[in-house]
Write a structure and sequence with these properties.
With 139 residues, the protein is an alpha/beta fold. It contains 6 helices and 7 strands. The radius of gyration is 15 Å and the shape is globular.
Length: 139
């Protein structure tokens, strides 16, 4: 286990030295907090466009952001339109994880993931991602 941690740290240091990082954005706010939600997507989009590897983990009310109606209607004050950020992230290869527990509690099923680079995940995936990434932002 120690060897794995040391190798991970070495790879992270190399990536940072080259100016590229692995970034995890954890989003727990949903359509009821449009500025915060759009800000999370804007930061992730910006990082991806700068060549960083970006992953989003949506939990709590954040799972609602992948609904088509949310993508089309959420606009933050000074943080842009969710749909524009989402489309740019998809184009850049960003991966989305959606809390299965949060989705189930909010009545979301497989339909929310249809045609999206996303999958349901449990809390252990969030923990793993937090350890694998160089930086983590939470919104």
């Amino acid at each position: 286990m120690l060897r794995i941690l040391l190798m991970t740290a070495l790879l992270a240091a190399t990536a940072l030295a080259e100016g590229k990082a692995k970034i995890l954005v954890h989003v727990t706010h949903g359509p009821d907090a449009p500025t915060r939600a759009a800000l999370a997507f804007l930061v992730a989009r910006t990082a991806a466009e700068e060549g960083h590897t970006v992953t989003l983990f949506l939990a709590g009310d954040g799972v609602n952001l992948l609904r088509e109606d949310s993508l089309d209607s959420v606009t933050g004050v000074g943080t842009g339109k969710l749909r524009e950020h989402y489309d740019a992230m998809v184009k850049a290869g960003v991966r989305f994880y959606v809390s299965g527990n949060s989705a189930k509690a909010r009545g979301l099923g497989e339909e929310v993931l249809k045609n999206k680079p996303a999958e349901f995940a449990l809390p252990k995936v969030l923990v793993r991602l937090s350890l694998e990434n160089d930086r983590m932002f939470t919104y």
